[in-house]
Amino acid sequence: MSQKSTLQKRSEVDKRFTWAIEDLYSSDDLWQQEYDQIKEMLPKAMEYQGRLSKSAALLYGFLQLSDEISKLLERVYVYANQKYHEDTGNATYQDLSNKANALAVQVGSVLSFATPEILSIPVETLSGFRQEVEELKIYDFYLMDILRLKPHILSAEMEEILADAGEMADAPSNIFSMFNNADIKFPEIKDENGEDVRITHGRFIRLLESPDRRVRREAFQGLYSTYKSFQNTLAASFSSNVKQEAFFSKARQYPSTLEKALDAGNIPVDVYTNLINAVHDNMHLMYRYVKLRKKLLGLDELHMYDLYTPLVSDVDMKVPFEEAKKLVAKGLEPLGEDYQRILKEGFDNRWIDVYENENKRSGAYSWGAYGTHPYVLLNYNDTLDNVFTLAHEMGHAIHSYYSDKEQPYIYAGYKIFVAEVASTCNEALLIDYMLKNTNDKKEKAYLINHFLDKFKGTLYRQTMFAEFEMITHRMVENGESLTAENLCKIYHDLNALYYGDDVVIDPEIAMEWARIPHFYTAFYVYQYATGYSAAIALSRRILNEGKPAVDDYIRFLSSGSSNYPIELLKSAGVDMSTKEPVNQALKLFEELLDQMEELMNE
Hints:
This protein has 26 helices and seven strands. It is mainly alpha-helical. The strands form three sheets. The chain has a three-stranded mixed beta sheet, with helices on one face. A two-stranded antiparallel ribbon has the order 1-2. A hairpin with a 7-residue loop joins β5 (365-367) and β6 (375-377). α8 packs antiparallel against α11, α21 (441-477) runs antiparallel to α22 (484-499) and α23 (526-545) packs across α26 (580-601).
């Protein structure tokens, strides 16, 4: 399909390149019927309130009804929003999306009584319930996980107070979001062609990738000088968010904010600290990467604004979508016949919405609803990066396919901690295949550069973010204040530690903490680095050990959330409670550095 200079309207797109949304609902009328059905089911769910402890039959009846409501809601929600994403200018689907969002809030409110009630049931009583109703055993892990958190659940009166404080506690995040997305305005600069261009969040990285160093420098200085002019306000917002997290951690009787955040997935604190320590042990590899970047760019001084511009200019390699599918399939052959069968099923049966059209949502994702195949949204435009995006999103999709197929609804979804494992494993396998099957020096250098930048951006950078969070949260817990001055010093010093002596740590970078939205969701970003490490370790095991490793991996993909993330990864041969997976990933980083240095010296 040729790419046109003017985007097609959604109605003009060849059906072959659109997702089969009709597999969810063949018409909006059917969507409306299930929407109405959910509305009718909610009063039935409310009839269980105050009665879950009365009998095994009542508890089982409620859990079944809750699953059915949630399952239908997922279908209603996904369809409405995917139709909206096809054409965000379509008023019909704007309305359906709004209705689905409102219904989701309503369902959440109606079902919210369940967890506190289950927690009030004595363990002995729950155990007796399991003997009375055999079918309740399917909920064993779900109920055990709720009971695990019992020491951190307060009295009904205190829980109500904490719930009422929730909106107030969201204030720092809401204030930052409003400031960062609506109020802050960055200056204009001249681009490579001498045209005026305003710096925006969306354009910033593209400007830092510019081959023109003046553009990179002015974009960097323009963005961070703007943040600096609001540094005290932003420090107050950040500090307030850390303080509210500390308050809720203390109220729920956790020793620290970090332990509270990790306890949701039953993640040991060692996983967090091991990540940071393992990266510290391998800082010399980042310093080698930085030195190589400085050399390849031919710079006397490497600045922070030189860290994004490609070391190898984009290879003139157009990959039409049909070729991309073949390339991805070849790259994923080590995953075995069954994986290949599912991949082909997705390629041949319109799981993917391929090309950009007018008003289509940007970016890429995998989504779907239980009981129906997954879906992938792309905006494919024939680049090598798009090929990796296809492999990445199909990794998510096939993870969901396996989990949905093998797990009951209650366990089909997987936790954030493992969410990026399957997608990144696919990318690692694809890059391995492509590196082994190209003799083109420039293409090989481009592929290695792509992978090196992934390591820099995901494993090192996200770990640096994680360390910044750990330091700042500990300071507040120790009664120290967070000011613009000490936040900037902490962040500046971390950049110096992570990038080393071959980079000029420009003073502007000290303000970067002020623009990271994820810092308002405490201790979230480390999961990008741990997930990446686990994926690399798994891909190495698959390539080195073959079928036994593949069998373990498919079992992991099929497990959903039927166990805690750390245990699921252990079953696949990766123990994230040790430093080993991070060390294995960084060993590959070292091998790639060796290859790049050798290529550049030829």
